[in-house]
């Protein structure tokens, strides 16, 4: 139940994530409401992914999945802008350690990597808030943890099938759980509830995870993934003067 020994899978994931977030960036910017409506969530997340993908392509330790992610995460942290970009960079860097030294990534290792990413992202904030990127990241970590314990006894992921295919169900379930988590952000933060929209950073992370699902399963991207999410197509407008920047200010680094 492991992916093939292809660190190129990481590079492929980051490249596709960069492409998807790049396409979504204008809508993510228009949806940006929390912590301040400054219309840069998509732009910031794209900058982070571009730095990560560039570094991953240049990483000399291509046989080490964790090393590739560490290289990408460090570059992303150097280039991160705003809360959304910073949290994405911290998450990528956090994934690296559980995968260091590995040429293969199984469901257990991926669950450990996402758990580490979740903890790192929460520790980076002075006052972590639900209804944000954090909610979706935690949902992904929990989903993978459940799948990693269930997978050995599940016929769909047992046997001698291609390892990447066997990992596919876990990542597919993870993506579905993350869609639900994004939908729930509307009810978790007052500014989002009033505007009847979901969180922009949460949707951006959803596209990053859709890239992972597509790469792991070898199936096309679901271009309609976010279309029905409240506010994604039409954007959002905050009430004049509304700002809750202090509520999610990072312990160190810039605000979103």
Order of helices and strands: HHHHHHHHH
Strand content: under 5%
Query: What is the count of DSSP helices, taking H or I runs of 4+ residues?
Result: 9
How many strands, what sense, and barrel or not for the largest sheet?
none
Number of strands: 0
Report helical residue fraction.
55-70%
Ends: how far apart? Answer: 38 Å
Low-confidence stretches: 3-7, 153-165, 239-256
Summarize the structure.
The protein has nine helices and no strands. It has helices spanning 8-31, 41-58, 65-79, 82-99, 107-123, 133-150, 163-188, 190-195, 200-217.
Describe the model:
The protein has 256 residues and is mostly helical. It is 62% helix and 0% strand. The chain has nine helices and no strands. Helix 1 runs antiparallel to helix 2, helix 1 packs antiparallel against helix 9 and helix 5 packs antiparallel against helix 6. The chain starts with 7 loop residues before the first helix and ends in a 39-residue tail after the last helix. The N terminus and C terminus are likely disordered.
Keywords, separated by commas or semicolons:
256 residues; 0% strand; mainly alpha; disordered C terminus
Helix and strand layout, with pairings?
Layout: H1 8-31, H2 41-58, H3 65-79, H4 82-99, H5 107-123, H6 133-150, H7 163-188, H8 190-195, H9 200-217
